[in-house]
Amino acid sequence: MKWERKDLIGLEDVSPEEIWHILEVAKGFKKKLVEKDVKKIATFENKNFVTLFYQASTRTRFSFEIAAKNLGLNVMNFSSATTSVSKGESLYDTVKTLEAMGVDIFAIRHGMSGSARYIAEHTPAHVLNAGDGVHEHPTQSLLDMFTIWESKGKLDGVKVVLVGDHDHNRSSRSNTWALSKMGAEVVLCGPRTLVSDEYTDLGGRFVGDVEEALKEADVIYTFRIQQERQEPGLVPSLGEYSRFYGINEERLRFAKPDVVVLHPAPMIRGSEITSAVADGSHSLVFEMVTNGVAVRMALIYLLLGGES
Ligand code: CP
Question: Which among 169, 176, 137, 177 is positioned nearest to 295, based on CA atoms?
Answer without folding.
Answer: 137
